[in-house]
Amino acid sequence: MSNFFQRDSQRRQELVSAYVVPESIRCVQCGICSYNCPLGIDVRLHVWNGEPVKDSECLTCGECVRRCPRGVLRFESSNIFNDLKSR
Amino acid sequence: MTSDLSYPFVIIGNGAAGVAAVEGIRRHNSSDRILIISKDPHKFYSKPGLAYWLTGQIPEKQLYPHSPFDDKQLGIEYLLGHVIDIDPDRHSLHLEDGNSLHYRRLLIATGAQAVRPTIEGIDLEGVVTLDNLEDTRRIIKLARKAKRAVVVGGGITALELAEGLTARRVETHYLLRKDRYWGNVLDEHESHLVEERLKEEGIQLHYRVELQKIIAKRNRVSGVELRSGESIPCDMVGVAIGIRPQTALVGGTPIHVERGILVDEIFKTSVEDIYAAGDVAQVWDPHTQKYVLDSLWGVAREQGRVAGINMAGVHEPYQRKTPFNVTRIGRITTTLIGCIGQPESDDDLVAIARGDSETWRSSGNAFAVKKDTENNRVRLLVGKSNIQGALVMGDQTLSRPLQHLITEQVDITPIRERLLDNPEELAELIQRFLSERERTNHA
To answer: How far is B404 from B410, CA to CA, in rounded Å?
Structure first.
């Protein structure tokens, strides 16, 4: 139950921020992100192309961000530690 | 096929480097024909994803990403075949089926292959490596009936095998030759964290043991015998003692080979018009003035892309970045960057494994600064004016900031002394330092 609330608050936090942004160098194209997207967005293809997920269908539910085993995805936010461009 | 077939670009191998090379070539050359030759009957798939298929996180069909080949681009052709020999003088290559063809520029992106130790019983059907899609299919099939497995080796692949088999309800015994896991990259505490996690998953660890031979009964694996004389009954044996670049096809050519095919900063081999990239290539590193092997997916892709651009005639030297990987080791998310090596040797591996870099073994001239909280660990290797390497286990808050500091070789002199004196303040020091930097850069 506590886990449920935790997820809910995480989700709320994520909803206010804009979109999912990849850091392609971390990605191994395993496809866990696309597989877990409830709307079937091919998140993996966005990562291959180095593009943020700007599809209007994206719910920013955070499922791909949470499931990625390699920390490829994050939500774009004004947080300085997330804004570092590592490429 | 006739022997007068000729292609402007030929790529051997359809892994990350080969596929990225097509993209690299096409960026500057939109029309010349490209031939991709592969002995792997499957289309481009994610090799690192095999481990997630094994644990059941994704189904097999998820392994195939949309690749540049899916869009029916003009001038890209495929050939299922095995190149056995290259004739650089004639610019030709020969296939196992007797055919041959000509190339104007050739890329060797054949990858690496799992090493099998030369012990009795190694060729039995129940002995597996986690090298490619066929291997994984076989493991899954065997695991349906197997009750117990023994895994030997080290690095990330050995754990992927052990954890994958455990997830498939096979009782798994992991044999280590020394006192701990991955002793030349992880320090004692880090090894311990991983080992504890493996035990929690139900994997049984055996220390200071060495595989002597694999025992068979009616041509099937029935157990292993250890050097001590003891034996462990089992139906499967997983082997992950390292990988070797697949260089056999350049034997008999003047192409220089050390551990891999030696290439310069534009991925050219010692022979004109022949390039190599990805796991098969041992790449010149201007920083260390050495040729280095990496087996990292992102690196292979980047190498392939740059090789392709150069093959298309545009000079673009490769900027080797600090080797870096984020992966789960014993289910603990772990970032490994740069020089983090330990003075010990690791007898479980005879070469690097997949998802591995030779650079991680070097320790450089640096002080280790460590911080532990519960199951999290951060270890920095602090040099004279910058951070030379880092390992982040568990909480990944510092993964990106450290990746940035190390890759960009940021001068950390302003916080160096405090870092060395107050390791417990490590996270705050780094975050504050970066905020400060960001502010001045924007000002």
So the answer is: 8
Torsion angle, alpha carbons of B298, B299, B303, B305, to 10? 20
Report the complex ipTM.
Answer: 0.90
Core vs surface per residue B246-275: b (16+ CB within 10 A) or e: bbebbeebebebebbbbbbbbbbbebeebb
Rounded to the nearest angstrom, the minimum Cα separation between B339 and chain A is: 18
Rounded to whole angstroms, how far apart are CA atoms B267 and B324? 20
B403 vs A69, A83, A86: nearest CB: A86
CA-to-CA distance for B127 and B214, rounded, in angstroms?
Answer: 9
CA B346 to chain centroid, in Å, comes to 17
- Could you give the C-alpha distances from B310 to B78, B132, B211, B268, in angstroms and in order? 22, 29, 46, 9
Max Cα separation, chain B?
A: 75
Does A82 touch chain B if contact means CB atoms closer than 8 Å? yes
Along the 443 residues of chain B, how does pLDDT read in single tens digits? Answer: 444 599 999 999 999 999 999 999 999 999 999 999 999 889 899 999 999 999 999 999 999 997 666 656 668 899 999 999 999 999 999 999 999 999 999 999 999 999 999 999 999 999 999 999 999 999 999 999 999 999 999 999 999 999 999 999 999 999 999 999 999 999 999 999 999 999 999 999 999 999 999 999 999 999 999 999 999 999 999 999 999 999 999 999 999 999 999 999 999 999 999 999 999 999 999 888 999 999 999 999 999 999 999 999 999 999 888 888 999 999 899 999 999 998 888 899 999 999 999 888 887 788 999 999 888 999 999 999 999 999 999 999 999 999 999 999 999 999 999 999 999 999 999 999 999 998 888 76
Structure tokens at A11: 């989700």
Cα–Cα distance, B418 to B382 (Å, whole number): 11
Query: Shortest Cα distance from B338 to chain A (angstroms)?
Result: 14
* Nearest beta carbon to residue B46 from set A26, A29, A82: A29
Q: Which residues numbered 370-409 in B keep a CB inside 8 Å of some CB on A?
A: 396-397, 399-401, 403-404, 407
